[in-house]
TrEMBL record:
It holds the Pfam family Acetyltransf_10. One of its GO terms (molecular function) is acyltransferase activity. Keywords: Acyltransferase, Transferase. Its EC number is 2.3.1.-. This is GNAT family N-acetyltransferase. The keyword Nucleus does not apply. Gene3D superfamilies: 3.40.630.30. Residues 12-162 form the N-acetyltransferase domain.
């Protein structure tokens, strides 16, 4: 699936990420309000490089109209093992259904790839979002200092066949 729009999120298109999106995606990760305070160190040096985009199924949500084609969010799906590696929505674009659009697109991509489930190791402040969009809590990824000094909830999206 190359693009997806929804009446509830007018003028949002989802397309495959390309190498030239790398700097924008890196800024989106590093600027995320969900990673302020004690979580800031986790993304301080984080980089979404062109090599990552080329190697993974990464997709961006792009706003048309008033956003002038700006990247509003993105996700990355790993196939082996099946995992939603990254999912970010720009702070100013949250609450508009973009995260739900990205999740629906990810599920469609997972289904097309023959997957029946996709794991998510969630950032603690994002766990309510994953619950709301249909992920099921499956456990806890324990802290791994110094890289990740806090426990993280694990979820799973079950991908029904059509």
């Amino acid at each position: 699936m190359s693009s997806h729009t929804s009446p509830s999120s007018r003028s949002i298109t989802i397309r495959r990420a390309v190498a030239r999106d790398a700097k924008r995606l890196t800024r989106l990760v590093r600027g995320s309000g969900a990673y302020e305070g004690k979580y800031a160190a986790a993304v301080a040096g984080y980089r979404v490089g062109p090599d990552y985009i080329e190697a993974h199924r990464a997709f961006v949500a792009v706003g048309a109209d008033e956003h002038g084609g700006r990247v509003l969010g993105f996700y990355s799906l790993l196939l082996a093992p099946p995992e939603l590696d990254l999912l970010f929505v720009a702070d100013e674009a949250q609450g508009r259904g973009i995260g739900l659009l990205l999740v629906a697109h990810m599920q469609s991509e997972a289904r097309a790839a023959g997957l029946d489930r996709v794991k998510v190791v969630s950032h603690p402040p994002a766990q309510d979002f994953y619950h709301r969009v249909g992920a099921v809590r499956t456990g806890t990824a324990l802290a791994n200092p110094p890289a990740v000094p806090w426990d993280r909830p694990e979820f799973e999206f079950r991908i029904p066949s059509e």
